Here is the input.
Amino acid sequence: MRFRATTWGGALAMTIVLVGLTATAARAQPREAPFEQVVFDGFSLGAGARPWGMGGAHLAIHGDPEAGSWNPAALADLDRPWVTVSFLGDRLDGSPRTIQIDRTSGATGTVGILRESLVTAAGGGFDDLAAAVPFRLGRLRAVAQVGYQRRVRFGYDFAYASAFDYLEPDVYHHDYRYDAAASGGLDTVAVRLAAAPTRWLRVGAGLHRWFGGYMLPVRETSVRSFYITEALRAGWTESLDDDLRFEVSGWSWDLGAQADVTDWLVAAVVVRPGFDTGVEYSNTAASVDERLGERFTGATHAGRGRLELPDAVAVGAAAALGDRLVLALDVTTTLWSEASLD
Here is the structure.
């Protein structure tokens, strides 16, 4: 299966006297099954079209109200109130394939053909909302920011369809379709504080309250038919409905710093300790088999568990090579996270 990913996004930044629209940038991020193995890149969770327009290398960028979700120290240079809003949309399209399977065993040949007809996934929506206000504590210049961010997005509709024909020695046909409509996401409300204790150093910290959840209703449908002879045929339909839900809650924090090495070079470091979130989950399944004339509705399984997000440390640098050219590079070490259910 070949895939093509398309992402659109935008951000609006406003002050009392200035309104600006940033450029959009393409990006695609993998989403993993929530309870099998969950991977969170601690520094791929920032927001804003401008940061993603720079490839997500934004740890050493300062004076940008969108940079606070990447490095809280970046807010220290703001000299007036700001409100930022960003949104995001993704679409993944797969190229259908036709695969022929040919195996020979003795005098009997086995030929199968798989035809894929539909593979799509699409979603989008609100990404970030934040407000920043500068103030002074004596001679110390500081900035406070409060923001909401959808850290991990689960709002996707996914569809897949295929047909399989087993041609020899008997004819067997199988139509399969999978439809899922995931919704929800992992959200945070953050309070950030940044200050500039010297003219060349900026420091910041953030406290994040995690909440939100995930809903995934799934339907799988299989239509099967046999043609042994013209007079001997059989066929039936099987379907499976599955509904998975979970909710999370927890706290995290991060620390960041930026230093002006020269007039044109900035170095940065950010530390984000890992943490555990509480998880409440439920899962209900139902199936229908026309061949046996049975309908099965499983009991709802529910419980509590935990979701461990990883420790992450990153360093970055940004070089202003001209009035319109900035080169930035970030290097991140992020531990894998795991999910477990009690």
Q: What stands out?
A: The chain is about 0% helix and 65% strand. The helical segments are 49-53. Residues 91 and 122 are 4 Å apart (CA to CA). The chain has a mean pLDDT of 76.
